[in-house]
């Protein structure tokens, strides 16, 4: 019997109290800049048992302005920006080369929280990218050595052979260089924090970076749900 998608969708419930804790969020007490609040919320998601809290949606656009989105991992967030990595020749890498601006989206359903970040993207120096890669797992290095990301794959057998070779090299040479591996840093110009509410009175706080003459000063404002 075929699945009725619409019936299935109607049966789902958002933020089931048995598995979701919707904490209070008082914007008036939020810090002056978004990074400390992001760090606090991220730590809370980890403590609450959120699965893979470091995964995020990355939205880019191609040369025609058409959007694309995929899930990637956060590699860090500091004064230099929110970091993620990929091959320069991947679809996202090509998009960022032509339009170096992106948006990130985090969703931690166990707490009913979202964080949205957007701003210009730059590539970190190659030595930073290689250092980031070699600090990760053997599997991460093997995947990077496999390469050819976003290219057409003739067959799964081709992938198996290339992956096996890459795993062997990664185990043999844990510092093997991957020239195409690129560490990207998104310098936030806007960051929004969303706290869900069971009565749908969601709290949204948006930070916006002021002009360069103001340094790293941020304005803050509430948004209607």
TrEMBL record:
Residues covered by the Pyridoxamine 5'-phosphate oxidase N-terminal domain: 45-155
Cofactor dependency: FMN
GO-annotated molecular function: FMN binding; pyridoxamine phosphate oxidase activity
Cofactor comment: Binds 1 FMN per subunit.
Keyword annotations of the record: Flavoprotein, FMN, Oxidoreductase
Domain of life: Bacteria
Domain Pyridoxine 5'-phosphate oxidase dimerisation C-terminal intervals: 181-225
GO terms classed as biological process: pyridoxine biosynthetic process
Chain sites annotated for binding FMN: 91-92, 114, 149-150, 204
Family, similarity comment: Belongs to the pyridoxamine 5'-phosphate oxidase family.
Name the UniProt record assigns to this protein: Oxidase
Origin species: Streptomyces cahuitamycinicus
């Amino acid at each position: 019997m075929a699945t009725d998608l619409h019936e299935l969708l109607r049966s789902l419930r958002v933020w089931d109290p048995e598995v979701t804790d919707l904490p209070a969020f008082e914007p008036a007490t939020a810090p002056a800049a978004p990074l400390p609040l992001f760090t606090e919320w991220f730590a809370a998601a980890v403590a609450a048992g959120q699965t893979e809290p470091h995964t995020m949606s990355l939205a880019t656009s191609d040369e025609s302005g058409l959007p694309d989105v995929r899930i990637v991992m956060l590699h860090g967030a500091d004064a230099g920006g929110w970091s993620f990595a990929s091959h320069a020749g991947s679809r996202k890498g090509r998009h960022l080369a032509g339009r170096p601006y992106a948006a990130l989206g985090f969703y931690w359903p166990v707490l009913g929280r979202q964080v949205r970040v957007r701003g210009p993207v730059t590539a970190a120096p190659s030595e930073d990218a290689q250092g980031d890669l070699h600090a990760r797992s053997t599997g991460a290095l093997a995947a990077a050595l496999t390469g050819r990301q976003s290219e057409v794959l003739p067959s799964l057998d081709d992938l198996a052979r290339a992956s096996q070779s890459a795993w062997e090299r990664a185990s043999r040479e844990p510092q093997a260089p991957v020239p195409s591996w690129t560490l990207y840093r998104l310098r936030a110009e806007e960051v929004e924090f969303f706290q869900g509410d069971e009565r749908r009175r969601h709290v949204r706080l948006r930070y916006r970076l002021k002009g360069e003459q103001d340094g790293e000063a941020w304005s803050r404002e509430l948004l209607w749900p």
